[in-house]
Amino acid sequence: MIHFEQTLSTARQVLKDSHICDAIVSVLVLRDLRGRIRLFLKPADDRRNQVAAALPDLTSELRQKLAPFWGGVLDLDVANSEFASILTPVRAEAVPIEPIVDYPGWSIIERHVAKSSWTTRIHRPPWPLNAHTPPIVAWYSHKGGVGRSTGLCATAMCLAKAGKRIVVVDLDLESPGLGTLLSGAPIEHGIIDYLLERLVAGTSFAPNVNDYLTRQNDPQLIGDGGEPIVCIPAGSVSRWYLEKLARLDYELLTIHDPTAPNPLADILQQVKREISPDFVFIDCRAGLHDLGGLAVHQLSHASILFGLDSQQSWDGLRCIIRALAQVTPNSPPCLLIHAMEEATPGPRQREARERFLQKSYDVFCEEFYEEGDVPDIGEVGEAHSPLPLPYDSRLAGYQTLGQVAELLQDRPYQELLERTRHLIARAMNNVTAE
After folding, report:
1. 69 near 37, Cβ under 8 Å?
2. Which terminus of the chain has fewer Cβ atoms in its 10 Å neighbourhood, N or C?
3. Residues 169/134, Cβ–Cβ less than 8 Å
4. For the segment 110-169, what is each residue's pLDDT rounded down to a tens digit?
5. pTM for the full predicted model
6. Residue 110: in which H helix or E strand, if any?
7. Dist CA 407 CA 434 (whole Å)
8. Which DSSP state fits 376?
9. Helix (H, G, I), strand (E, B) or coil at 254
10. Per-residue pLDDT averaged across 1-9, rounded?
């Protein structure tokens, strides 16, 4: 039985072994929602008839070799083809098949039933980043329980104490909790209500954004003269929460048509207009989830990625880093956090740091950096350069931020604040470079 990841290389081998291989200028692959492929061959001008005559035998060979992954269509990629009307409107979506050295002249148009927020190359934050607009920063981890929300809260608290207006959005809808830490009053409604109601009402929806947020003004967290932290929680986890969640179609939020309603972008725009934040932080659900992809891959200006010193974590992080690298014209910058690091200085901590740094460098060189623009492994502040956040047993099982407020001002979290500021500066330079 052939597997999904073998289909393209198998199709290539079939064409490579054919007697018309040198008569084919390029190959366009159309892969459908189930992973089946259709091939369209562009022949050399003077060998069109020869390629056309070979199509029946090639079709038989492809049908046999690709089995269930064969889409049943092999045709010429020419102007008068019967499939020209189908290919013309989607041809702009074609991307080169990688590694290009194995597929010279091959490109592919992908169709997805879900997770399109991770696979698209479109990066479209709700507003451009400049000196007068707030940066949107996505906080993401492939695995849960790595201190992502704690790090976000610590950074938000430090910025609020400095007089900055912070808006935090809890997109961890399947495991809500950030709202209980940052809400200064009982939660009644949240982002789940806004998204559902916006999907139902469409463009006629004109809500009061204050109905969906709370403000945290505890002096223990933001200081005596600090700015209240605005939190849009996931929602009230009441008897109706599952009913709301069951009606929220995440794929509707990832529609690529610029004229189509995007509820998440809508609420961010409304927050920008009515609250005028200095920073917007989005807490993303762990895993390769649609909303996480939407926040990290499309809507944020920069991302903070939490990872563990484990193969499980790196497998997931590699997917994310590869997805970010596909964004054009410039990949949004990211900051990598070495989470739950060994807290006690010594050989074990040193070995773990060196191992994590080397793995990070290898992954970013393979998936993210462009050839000819690869920094040295020791350059601090580059995308591959991780910030260690040690495991602190004193943070285990805390119920309120007030209980750990002093700990969240310690050196590791001050370094996180500084690296976050540096990340945002890189994001702004990224926009300028475009």
Report:
1. yes
2. N
3. no
4. 887 677 777 777 788 999 999 999 999 999 998 888 999 999 999 999 999 999 999 999
5. 0.85
6. strand 106-110
7. 40
8. P
9. helix
10. 92
Let me know: does 154 contact 306? Beta carbons within 8 Å: no
Beta bridge pairs of residue 142: none
Cα–Cα dist 187/216, whole Å: 12
CA atoms within 13 A of residue 421's CA, in its CB half-sphere: 9
Helices (H) then strands (E): counts for the chain: 14, 13
What is the per-residue pLDDT across 250-289, written as a single tens digit (0 to 9) for each? 777 766 555 666 788 889 999 999 999 999 999 998 888 8
Greatest Cα-to-Cα distance within the chain, rounded to the nearest angstrom? 81
pLDDT exceeds 80 at position 232: yes
For range 295-305, the mean pLDDT: 92
| DSSP 8-state symbol, 46 | G
4-111 fold:
GMP Synthetase; Chain A, domain 3 (3.30.300)
285: CB partners within 8 A, 6+ apart: 171, 172, 173, 174, 175, 291, 292
Pairwise CA distance, residues 273 & 102, whole Å: 49
CB 157 within 8 A of CB 401: yes
Rg (CA), the chain: 25
Q: Is 123 helix (H, G, I), strand (E, B) or coil?
A: coil
Cα–Cα distance, 419 to 422 (Å, whole number) = 5
Q: What gap in Å lies between CA 352 and CA 184, rounded to an integer?
A: 39
| Token pair recorded at residue 186 | 């009982």
pLDDT tens profile 11-35: 999 999 999 999 999 999 999 988 9
d(CA 335, CA 306): 9
User: What is residue 255's three-state secondary structure?
Assistant: coil
Rounded to the nearest integer, the mean pLDDT of the chain is: 90
Mean pLDDT in residue range 227-250: 91
Length of the chain: 434
* CB of 152 closer than 8 Å to CB of 168: yes
Domain spans in the chain, listed from the N-terminal domain onward: 4-111, 118-433
Residue from 406, 362, 409 nearest 386 by CA: 362
Cβ neighbors of 284 (< 8 A, separation 6 or more) are: 138, 139, 140, 141, 171, 172, 291, 292, 295, 296
CA distances in angstroms from 203 to 20, 117, 206, 261, listed in the order given: 54, 22, 8, 7
Burial class (CB in 10 A: 0-12, 13-18, 19+), 371: exposed
